[in-house]
Amino acid sequence: MSMTQHAAPAVTTPPAPGAKQTDGRTRERPLMLRLLARPEVGVFLGAVAVFVFFLIAAPSLRQGSSMATVLYQASTIGIMALPVALLMIGGEFDLSAGVAVITSALTAAMLSYQLTLNVWMGVIVALVVSLAVGAFNGWMLVKTGLPSFLVTLGTFLILQGVNLAVTKLVTGNVATDDISNMDGFDQARALFASSFDVGGVQVKITVVWWLVFAALATWVLLRTKYGNWIFAVGGNKHSARAVGVPVAFTKITLFMLVGFGAWFVGMHQLFSFNTVQSGEGVGQELIYIAAAVIGGCLLTGGYGSAIGPVFGAFMFGMVQQGIVYAGWNPDWFKAFLGVMLLGAVLINLWVQRTATRR
């Protein structure tokens, strides 16, 4: 008699349609945590709070002309804050950005006036000089391995001295000569410093350029290989180099982007006021860096966005003009700036810890 037993086949119940299987190790993070992981969310909420606060504290700010002034003030900061933010995401920062703006404007003004050239020649040469300054900063950083703080601090001091000394040597004064009557001025002014009418309100062209540059920077960061390189070198340049990222190229071109931003803002200042004071620009680099930090960029690199600095620059413009429209002492602006900066750093720290918590 056979003692062999045949086991019945195992019956498995298929999962219910639409049900997700999980092994306990992976799970979808809540929507709130995913939103908090975005670097621009905190500054957006802060910008809304500042906006509402000053609308209440300064009723005159509700007028269209007042808001146009706020946007103009924000745009002149925001155009430079964008490349500074990209550089910070790449793990570096530039202390020479403020005086580089004046260097660019001085170059265009003096070259055009002293050599009686069409102002577009001065504009083109100024662009070359600005890109060269950025390339020098990046090259020095890559070749020496020195921190960007030291490299750009040296460039800051060099440019500050050159701006003053060369301007006095060439013009005999601390400011450049008026170039408003020179060939090409009107066309250059239309590009860099014109205004247009929106519902009876004059809006500066820099607001449009600011938004265009922000959209372009966002596309580069999120949709291009170069954007991936920026995040990679900012996170860990040694690991990035190991997987084939051109670290030297990325660092140098990021500094050149800051040079481009300095050129553009310098041209705006020149064609807005027709002349340039050689001692200006000192301290502006801290404003640009602060706008980027408030916008969610980290000094340690590898984290940030291009949209965040847009809101950061808007907060600057709102506070700076809001204090004036509210009738307060404008000396309080620096105090507000410090509070916003510290608040942004603490919020960013809390956001990161919350977003990475399981």
Can you describe what's shown?
This protein has helices at residues 31-36, 41-57, 64-89, 97-114, 119-144, 148-171, 185-192, 205-223, 225-235, 237-242, 247-273, 284-294, 307-325, 332-356, and strands at residues 195-198, 201-204. It is mainly alpha-helical. A two-stranded antiparallel sheet has the order 1-2. The radius of gyration is 26 Å and the shape is globular. The model is unreliable at 1-26 (pLDDT under 50).
Number-wise, the strands total: 2
- Major sheet strand order: 1-2
Helix share, percent: 55-70%
- Stretches where pLDDT falls below 50 for ≥5 residues? 1-26
Q: What would you call the structural class?
A: mainly alpha
Mean pLDDT: 86
Number of helices: 14
Cα Rg: 26 Å
Biggest sheet record:
2 strands, antiparallel
Distance between the termini: 61 Å
Characteristics:
358 residues, mainly alpha, two-stranded antiparallel sheet, 2% strand
